[in-house]
Each structure stands twice: as C-alpha cells, then as structure tokens.
Write a structure and sequence with these properties.
Number of domains: 2
CATH superfamily of the largest domain: Zn peptidases
Strand order of the largest sheet: 1-2-4-3-5-16-6-15
Structural class: alpha/beta
Shape: elongated
Oligomer: single chain
Order of helices and strands: HHHEEEHEHHEEEEEHHEEEHEEHEHEH
Number of helices: 12
Amino acid sequence: MPVVNRIAEFSSEMTAWRQHLHTIPELEFECYETAAYVAERLREFGVDELHEGIAKTGMVAIINGRGDGPTIGLRADMDALPITEDTGLDYASHNPGKMHACGHDGHTTMLLGAARYLAETRNFKGRVALIFQPAEEEGGGAGVMVDEGIMDRFDITQVFGLHNDPGNPVGSFYTTAGPIMAAVDTFDIHIQGVGGHGALPHQTKDPVMAACGIAQAIQTIVSRNHYAVEDLVVSVTQIHAGTVNNVIPDTAYLNGTVRTFDPSVQKMVIERMEQIVQGQAASYGVEARLDYQIGYPATVNDADKSAFAADVAREVSGAERVVDDMGRDMGAEDFSYMLQSRPGAYLFLGQGDGPSLHHPKYNFNDEIAPVGASFFARLVEKAQPLG
C-alpha cells in the first residue's frame, strides 16, 4: 500500500502548513505561535478534544474512533534550534537566530496530516492521542509531559514517534528493537589556577596546561576503562581560557558530552571523570570542579512494537525500503521518556540527500510529509482495527 490516497489529495496543503511553520521557529518551551497555529488546524479538522497548556505550550488532541478500544499515542516535536538560517528560502525563518534546522516543522506537519485524515475517516476503534510537544532540543519536554500525567490522563497504552533522516533515500524507514538512541549527559569542568606573565610561567599555576591534561586524560575512559565492544562516546567540545598571547590566565573551562546505553557504563564514566579531574588538578597544582549533568535516558524500542511499526512502514513504502535492524545511533532523543512510560517505537524516515540536521542550510523535504502522515494513520488503523 503506497501513500494513503486521501492524504495525497491534500499534500499541497501540508506543504503550506510546513512552510508557514518554518517561518516561525521558537525555542524550548516558548512555542506559543507554533502551538496556536497547530491548535487552529486541529480545531478545523474537528478533533473531539484539545487539551492545551501541557508542558507550557504542548497539547494533546483526542480523536475518537468507532467503538470502544484502547488509546494509541502519536508524538511530534515542535521546537526549533538557536541557529541562524542560511538557506535563502522565500519562507526562511522570520525570527533572527532561530531556525527549524532539525525538521520539527515537518514532524508537526506529518502529525497534522494524520490528524486530518483520522478525524475524517475514523476507521479505527478506541482513541488516538496526538501529542504535540515543545522543548525536545533542550529542556526534555517529553519528560515534562509525562511528569504532568499525559499517559495516565489519556489512558495511552502505546506510543510512537518519527524523525526525518537526511542522507537516506526518500520514503525509506529505519528502526530497531531495543536501544536505538543513546543517553546523553553533559559535563562542565572549571579550573582555578594562578595567572601571571607568559614569560614567567614558574610564578603561575597554569590552568591552560591543566585543561589540556584533563582533556587528554578523559579520553582514556573510553580507551582504557571501558569494554571495547560496548558503545560509549566521551567528547570534549569546548575549551576556553586566556585573552592575550603573553598572559597566563587564572582560569580555564572545559565542556563536553557523554553518550551511553548502559547505566553501569554511565556510572563508571562519572566516577572515572571525577577521579581524573581531581588527579590532573593535583598534578598541575590547580583546583578543579566537575559539574556532571545527567540528561535524556537512552531511547529503547519495545521489540514487539518496533516489529509492528516496521510492518506498517512496509505497507506504506514497500518491504525493500524498510530496515528493521539498523542498530544503535549515538544521537539522543527525549522521546525516551515516553518509551520509559509506555511501550512503543521510534523510527527514522529518509528524506534524501542534502545538508544534515542542525546545519544552517538544512531544510525538511516536503515530499516525505505525506509518507510520514500515511505511516501514522495506518499505524492507528492496524493497531486498533474495526471488525
């Protein structure tokens, strides 16, 4: 079965929705204009219930099927990134320094397309809960919505999410059973030394050398403290110190990210990083403080739900365009909180060649919006069929 015919009929309208959303990117929980636009569309479609103001600007729309049955949850993220757009599009961002560089405008559009179709046809039992979520990029909006009780409040029994995937063929689907994306943590290391003249380093306690030593030593966590066949990333992504060429500064700062799948590995990283920071600080005669922030947990697909979702994807795109054993990705996703609360699955949808996610030239491919909407719609109809 290809793209649902009815969804194909209003695909040009979906393009208009998406391109409008692209002009009004908003960050984190501040998705007021975006949420208002989404709510207006949902009311036009005739959803049965619309619950707004969840996680500040998130919402859940309910569409009733025909007859009693469970409630299936479908989720789209709405927030953008603090990136200055460089696409030259006539519908480029109107909000300076903000951009839909991850395709959340497209995710929202795909779920809106499914909402319109499902509200028209209602070829399913029970209910569908359409979850429009803020703050995926920063703030863990999915976790906030779960904490505010959406799973119990709306009796959601299973939940599914979808993300566009540049670099893979248009309309192809990718997923896997079990862990699909990593847990993400952040660390900050603050070093206090004693500055002085660059020509007289013996009179200083140099935080720059300590920062270099710490940055190098941290890499031994992966290479010497970790079993090589398990997935782990420790990356130092920022080092800041100094102002001019002939002054040794008083302070230095490091920042980075840690990606894991196993909580025991995460625990080991935290312990070793603290030991390394304090040990290196002592060896250079400086003081150092590690601030380690545990972030989104690993995104773990339910095996049965991911197999079911892959079957639905095959109906939409064809068996040859679906990979159901893609393996793990070291990226992170706050949909993980929803999958901790309910069984479900997360999938990627290929959108063809072009700039990668989080790039200032990125743009969502409108060609895949009807594919994603059809996937969501058929997911509901097959999970909760009539008769």
